[in-house]
Design brief:
Layout: H1 2-5, E1 9-14, E2 20-23, H2 25-30, H3 35-39, H4 43-46, H5 52-63, E3 68-75, E4 81-93, E5 96-105, H6 107-129, E6 135-137, E7 144-147, H7 149-155, H8 159-165, H9 177-188
Antiparallel strand pairs: 1-2, 1-5, 3-4, 4-5, 6-7
């Protein structure tokens, strides 16, 4: 019942040659096949060619008694590749050693990660390109974590030299150091400082 009702794809492979022994509905539906169609396939049919070496590694790792986990590409019946996360382990099935694989379609997760990377690249390009000095400080220690090129130029350092300073009090004039402490206290309490 658990095998049939699982929302992740569940696959039982023969441990010797990797052929399909059993799959749950989520597995064949995720790939766009009926149960009968899917069971007639060689696993390399629904695994993207770029991920074929991972299948061999998957079988070998499980044969050695270790668990296996990776991201890979599978292929839908219509030919569209999609990303999956695969977890595998060995287990006894009908008195013989087999492989149990849990396959999860991570298309949405990968798309979200890609959007985050694109946003980070966008923010990074703005951070790098602006002519105003921008600083990132560790809120607890008050140490400099990052500064943009404008901040380095303003203080007469290259980027590596500037980050090596790390303590803001080393590049803030003695007469203004009190304002940095006030700045940190204000930000820690959720206020705005100007």
């Amino acid at each position: 019942s658990v095998f049939e009702a699982g929302t992740d794809g569940l696959v039982i492979n023969d441990l010797e040659d990797g052929h399909l022994v059993e799959v749950n509905p989520a597995m064949h539906q995720m790939h766009g096949y009926t149960y009968e169609e899917f069971m007639a396939l060689n696993p390399l049919t629904f695994i993207h060619p770029d991920s074929h070496p991972l299948f061999a590694k998957f079988i070998e790792t499980v044969k050695e008694g270790e668990q296996f986990q990776t991201r890979a590409l599978d292929v839908h019946k219509e030919g569209t590749p999609f990303p999956v996360e695969v977890h595998g382990t060995s287990f006894e099935y009908k008195g013989k050693p087999h492989v149990l694989a849990v396959v999860r379609d991570i298309t949405e997760q990968v798309q979200a990660e890609k959007q985050i990377q694109e946003k980070e690249a966008q923010y990074r390009s703005i951070f790098e390109a602006t002519t105003d000095a921008l600083f990132i400080f560790d809120l607890e220690s008050g140490l400099l974590v990052e500064a943009n090129p404008a901040a380095s130029r303003m203080h007469g350092y290259n980027h590596e030299e500037f980050l090596a300073i790390s303590r803001p009090t080393d590049f803030i004039h003695a007469d203004a150091r009190f304002s940095f402490d006030l700045f940190l206290q204000t930000i820690k309490t959720g206020g705005l400082f100007q």
